[in-house]
TrEMBL record, chain A:
Entry protein name: Pup--protein ligase
Any Gene Ontology biological process: modification-dependent protein catabolic process
Keyword annotations from UniProtKB, A to Z: ATP-binding, Ligase, Magnesium, Metal-binding, Nucleotide-binding, Ubl conjugation pathway
UniProt key word Ligase: yes
Pfam families listed in its UniProt record: Pup_ligase (PF03136)
Superkingdom, natural source: Bacteria
EC number: 6.3.1.19
Encoding gene (name): pafA
Alphabetized GO MF terms: ATP binding; ligase activity, forming carbon-nitrogen bonds; metal ion binding
Automatic annotation (TrEMBL), chain B:
Associated pathway: Protein degradation; proteasomal Pup-dependent pathway
UniProt protein name: Prokaryotic ubiquitin-like protein Pup
Organism from which the protein derives: Demequina activiva
Top-level taxon of origin: Bacteria
Family, per entry: Belongs to the prokaryotic ubiquitin-like protein family.
Amino acid sequence: MVKWGRSSNVFLPNASRLYIDVGAHPEYATAECDTLTDLIASDKAGERIVHGLVEEGERRLADAGIDGTIHLYKNNVDSAGNSYGCHENYLVRRRADFRAFASALLPFLITRQIVTGAGTITRSPAGAHYSFSPRADHMWEGLSSATTRSRPMINTRDEPHANAELYRRMHVIVGDSSMSETTTLLKVGATDLILRIMEARQPLPDLALAKEMQAIRDVAHDLTGEATVELADGRRLTAVQIQSTYLDLVRAHVGGVIEPTPEVERILDLWERGIEAVRTQDLSQVDTELDWAIKLRLIERYQARLGCALDDPRLARLELAYHDISPTRGLFHRLQRDGLAATVVEDAAIQHATTAPPATTRAALRGRFVSAAVAAGQDFTVDWVHLKLAGGSKRTVLLKDPFRNTDERVDVLLTALEDPSAPVD
Amino acid sequence: MPQTHASGQPYEDDAPEPAPPAAKAESSDALDSLLDEIDDSLQTNAEQFVRSFVQKGGQ
């Protein structure tokens, strides 16, 4: 990566961004997507791209005569309790009441972990138990513009990477990284459906929580789904009740605000079965589709075989293996291979997305530009909204509309790259 | 190829027809064979392996 971009921070031909984040872990940001299938393919493509880095690293170790393997985990906490995770970015229309708008999403985000959590063995002096979300214990605020310091659920920094007069960014950082494609489908799909209803200015049920930080922990650590959380109006509801209320709300808008599609139906069906699995404690309804249930089934089976306690290091090792992104070593990938984990996109679509940008957004322009500049051996600079060729001032293009996948100015740049004698300035 | 980034600091941020769910039939047996396959590698130095996985910083 450093060799390719002479930097530890690059945009790739598939229009995604790959860089080394604080703490020296690779961070991959998919390009802007306007469909869930593009997003899932791009996300999974990212695993393959960083696995390429792992293979390269292992080759270098071998060349240096060092016997070693490199493991890269797409997970949410390390063994010392440091947390990281998966950011979701939703482009929303700018509005004056953004803080209230974002706050209204919190009861949904706090309780969605009962269906979309990654699941984890939580160890404490009192013993170990399985909880819905490894990320939940690391959240300290509802909204904030800081991330590494305060760990909010929604980052409110105003950075839309698009026309700022029209758009605002809903930057959700309370979610777990998902291995399962179907879990990603539900995590992002359900959140998108709620946002669509909010953006249509339809009324939401008032589910404001009295103590958000307490609530996210109480929900995470109660696998029965029976623990109640206190609402601002004094009521006490379970996460199952709150999620069911949101599901009913979305169902009521299908055919209205929400266009009925097979994909929407698939999201709602999985959402409903996920809630039911918690309510009835019958995981078989979702144990190939939701990360926390897939992993719990695996852990319980292995624990029974070993006859050990839940805090046994071999189970912690199993949990790590689940998140290993290696297509051969990674346990999730082996589950998928054996038909024990469901898929959303074809393998070929994921492979395609490792080099090809999403075709229907601005990403298509960025991807073409990066590929052409690399092929031409030209110096260039790229970020989410700019494409720039080294040289004259007219060689910079500002792309403020993330939904536009064609642009005459970019065509001029591309022509210049193909034919250096063509006029640009 | 040379590529520089506009801002010096890294940012912090970072459908077709649905496929049918994975087949459930005989999934118990499949799970057990998978555990058979990986059992040895999971048992080897599990404690040390897990303890050595520490990721500093990040979000």
